[in-house]
Amino acid sequence: MDSYRLMQFYAVLLFTLLLGGCSPGPQSSIALLSEPSYSASLSEDGKFALISNKDGIYFWDVTAAQPRYHWIQGSRNNDVIATAISPNNQYAITLSNDSVALWHTTDGSAVGWWSLSATAQCVSVANNGQFLVGLADGSVMALNLQQQRLIKFLGHTEKVNSVAISADGSLALSGDNNAAVLLWHTGNAQILQTWQMASRILKVTMSADASLLFMSDSTGNGWIRDSHNGKKISNLKIHTRQMNFSSARFIQQNTRLLTGTPARELQLWQVKSGKKIAAWQVSLPERPFPQSAVVYSVSQWTGNSVQSLSSTSLLERWQIPEQR
C-alpha cells in the first residue's frame, strides 16, 4: 500500500472512531429479566414496564425497580408476542398468536381473555380498556368493554402489521402489508383518512392527544402527519439507505419523536422539520447474548432524558444533549 493510500486508510479509521465516540453511553442500565424477552412496552410516562419471556409476563414498577405482578396467559408455555399499557396506566394488554388478555394494573386481576379467529400481529389499548388487535387476515378487532361491543374492521386488504388507538378509544390508526395506512373511527368503523406509502407498513403510532400521527414503511420512509386534516408535517430526514422502526413515541409536548429500530438504534427527531437531534445505541450484555437487539419500546423519563427497553431485557436511560 503506497503512502497516500495508507494516509487515506488511517484518516477513514480515525473518522470512524470519532463517530463511534459521538454516541454517549446510557446514564443507567437495569436488567428487568435475566434472559432475552419476546416483547416489552413502556408506559406513556415511563413509570411502568410490561415485559414477556418464556417464564411469563411481568409488570414492573420502574420507579421502585421491582416487578409488581407476574402473569401467565393460557396453559402452555408463555408465547406472548406483543404488549401494551394504556396511557393512564390502568390497563395492560398481552397478545399471543391466537389470544389476547387484558389486565387491571391496580390489583393485577384479569379483566378478560379472548381467543382470536386469525393469527395476531399487533395490539394497542386505550384508557377505558378498549383495545385493537391487528390480524394476519387483514382485519382489526376492536373491542369496547363498556358497551360490550365488538367491531371487526375490514378496511385493509392484507395483513395488518401495526395498530394504535387514541387515549379515549375513539380513533384507530392501522397499517398493512399493502403499504396502506388508515385512520378510522372505532365506534362505526368509518374510514376518515387513507394514505399509501412505498412499501409494507411496519410501524404506526399516535400522540397522546391524538393530534399527531407517525407512519413508517419497510423501505425506510417515516412520515409525521396532522390527524385533523391529514396533511404531512414532516418526513424524517433519514440519510442511511434503509431504516426500519420497531417503536415510536411522541414526547416533550409533541415537539419531538423518539424511535427505536431492530438494529439497536435509538433516535430523537424534531417533529416540525424531521431533523435528527440525537442518536444512541442500546447496550448488549457482556455474557453470551445475540449480537444485536430490537428496541421494543421508548418513553420520556425525568428531566431531559429518555428511556429504551430492548429485547435483551435492558431498561436504559439516556441524556438528551443540549441543543446549540
Question: Could you give the topology of this structure?
Answer:
Blueprint: H1 3-21, E1 28-31, E2 39-42, E3 48-53, E4 56-61, E5 66-71, E6 82-85, E7 91-95, E8 99-104, E9 110-115, E10 120-125, E11 131-135, E12 140-144, E13 149-153, E14 160-165, E15 171-176, E16 180-185, E17 191-196, E18 201-206, E19 212-217, E20 222-226, E21 232-235, E22 247-251, E23 256-260, E24 265-270, E25 276-281, E26 295-300, E27 305-310, E28 314-319
Antiparallel strand pairs: 1-28, 2-3, 3-4, 4-5, 6-7, 7-8, 8-9, 10-11, 11-12, 12-13, 14-15, 15-16, 16-17, 18-19, 19-20, 20-21, 22-23, 23-24, 24-25, 26-27, 27-28
Descriptors:
28 strands; 324 residues; 4-stranded antiparallel sheet; mainly beta; 1 helix
